[in-house]
Amino acid sequence: MSPDLTQKSISFNSARFLTSASRLEECPPDHGAEVAFAGRSNAGKSSAINCITTNGKLARTSKTPGRTRLINFFSLNRENCRLVDLPGYGYAKVSRDMKDDWQKHLGHYLNDRRCLRGLVLVMDIRHPLTDFDQMMVEWCEHNKLPLMILATKADKLKFGQAKTAMLNIGRKLEGLECLQHLVMFSATSKRGLEESQDALTHWLEGGSAEPV
Ligand SMILES: Nc1nc2c(ncn2[C@@H]2O[C@H](COP(=O)(O)OP(=O)(O)OP(=O)(O)O)[C@@H](O)[C@H]2O)c(=O)[nH]1
Ligand SMILES: [Mg+2]
């Protein structure tokens, strides 16, 4: 797909809450281009979205894990372009049934959503590549879906430690074709903001091919 030059370019600050869905049938029509943010509960997905859209009030964040329980859609100023905040994985304080339910809906979204152009996997730089993260990475590789990893909360580490953590993550993921960007990120200090915005723009404006 070649970029559509008749459309205006994306401004992340234009992001507005569109709708929430608890299952696939409630999602907006499967047209256009979407990028979804996934990661463990409390990893910092909603904060990353707020940082990227420079709108601290857009996605609800919380110290209490499990804040985002629905799939939340945010529209952008380009027609049918959306950012998606996915429910966090691994929130311990809910019942097994509820957990299974979330994972089922998450699975449906990831497997069936045709307009998904890329996945942003948000992980705490201090606790990277959990089982869930690895599962998501493998899923992207298998489905040839472009992946960007935001190793977030980098402000919690000294720069040298953060750099070492990034090298270790990079080493563990060496050779993966899906991994397009590995970004040291912090919603607090805004480290990695421009790089992630550029990557999202590229995906949403049609710079990457539709997954097969
Ligand atoms: N220091 C620091 N704290 C952060 C950063 N990003 C997120 N946090 C904090 O981490 C906690 C969780 O952030 P959220 O953005 O709500 O996490 P989430 O992944 O959306 O969580 P769920 O919705 O529960 O899945 C909040 O207290 C945030 O303020 C960061 O870059 N640096
Ligand atoms: Mg959240």
TrEMBL record:
GO molecular function: GTP binding; metal ion binding
Domain of life: Bacteria
Gene3D superfamilies attached to this UniProt entry: P-loop containing nucleotide triphosphate hydrolases
Domain EngB-type G residue range list: 31-206
Any one GO cellular component localisation term in the record: cytosol
Keyword terms: Cell cycle, Cell division, GTP-binding, Magnesium, Metal-binding, Nucleotide-binding, Septation
Cofactor annotation: Mg(2+)
Biological processes per GO annotation: division septum assembly
Function: Necessary for normal cell division and for the maintenance of normal septation.
Membership in a protein family: Belongs to the TRAFAC class TrmE-Era-EngA-EngB-Septin-like GTPase superfamily. EngB GTPase family.
Protein name as it appears in the record: Probable GTP-binding protein EngB
Native species: Marinobacter vulgaris
